Amino acid sequence: GAVVSQHPSWVICKSGTSVKIECRSLDFQATTMFWYRQFPKQSLMLMATSNEGSKATYEQGVEKDKFLINHASLTLSTLTVTSAHPEDSSFYICSALPGEITEAFFGQGTRLTVV
Amino acid sequence: AQSVAQPEDQVNVAEGNPLTVKCTYSVSGNPYLFWYVQYPNRGLQFLLKYITGDNLVKGSYGFEAEFNKSQTSFHLKKPSALVSDSALYFCAVTWANQAGTALIFGKGTTLSVSS
Fold it and tell me: Do the Cβ atoms of A106 and B45 come within 8 Å?
């Protein structure tokens, strides 16, 4: 199947700093990318949907100024957690959809720990 | 509102026995249905999908799922469970909306297969 690469796999940062997570589709063009947040033993909470070249659509309750999403090309989307705080510690997962509706392909996730 | 329900937090089966993980959905229009599996600290792996056609779809690792339109269900099944099937399973729905493509998940069901 298609490959989505998410980087970094894990990151530890100090409170108040910003962290950027990259999501790349390696062998297909992703018209749509999704960013999810997952708490331990819980489901994936959709944070935002991004379409290439347009602003991301954020879910209710997700601060767009805190979680900056950029989908600059058909193969790359980035999530920047700005001014991170310990409560932002979580597992973040991206997924990508090719142009047609089919199964989504997922990155391996990023474990963010804010200390 | 569109939703996906997985009524069981956990399913326990003995190795060699059949397993069923339940999923129901509430989506207007024509949804596409998926099952994914997640191992600890990993992204999601695609198992199978229903787009159209045969209601019984077969996927990876011997899993299959039956689409039932009248009951709006898409239960995941396997005739003979393996200990290695123990993981977190998510049912997901994709559909086209005005914003593009939407993708939501059920809360997840932990499958535990005992030897």
Answer: yes
